Amino acid sequence: MIEVSRTNGEIVIMADVESRTLQPGPIRATGFLLSNIVFGVIGFGLVMTTIPFGLLTLVFWVGILVLCTGLLLLRGAAQVHRTWLHTWLGVYIARPYRVMPTGAAARLRTLLTDGATWKDTIYLLLMFPIGMAELIGVSMLWGIGLGMSTMPLYYGLFDKGDEPQIFHPDFVVDTFGEAMICSAVGLLILCMAIIVVPAVAKAHAKFAVWMLGPSRKIMNGDRESTPRAAALV
């Protein structure tokens, strides 16, 4: 966990004062990794539409409205993802944003100059390729493992010439012995999935804490976050 203390109005974040570590189970880790593509699609769509259009139309002033709307939507999506992380993995990430002052011009300046806004944007943009890779990798790992491990239960249901093919057209499973070999390999793949999938989820959570959480260095006391930093709990 990360300890936070206040000194003269400043928030000091001290890392790793408690040795509790994140250990998500394979089911929760799988659900989290499979769902990340949703945030990736939303984030990629928002970044690639609102920000370029806003920058191109800044000269007409309407671009400011479009750009600010896009950044606020990205902030909202990032906050939903923080909640999603806490729901699935038990990871709490404090809001890192600066408190919005009064006045439209001051609010606009704060939004555009807050580094947390742009870290949210970069994170959600990266979530598209990362989420796609996680979706494909996790689906293949569990799918191949389950399909091969249960091969003895259904290999005999196929007609002659339609038997299951494993990795290569010449490797056709048409005997019980071959099905048992496939089952043993499938069980090994499932054991690997039980270890690998939570490890990937843990790595993603740490990356999210780094990108979406408050900075580890001393921050000014004008952040929206409470005196509770991003922590793996």
TrEMBL record:
The chain crosses the membrane at residues 29-47, 53-74, 122-155, 175-201. InterPro entries: Put_sensor_dom. The keyword Transport does not apply. It holds the Pfam family Sensor. Keywords: Membrane, Transmembrane, Transmembrane helix. Residues 32-212 form the Putative sensor domain. This is Putative sensor protein. It comes from Herbihabitans rhizosphaerae.
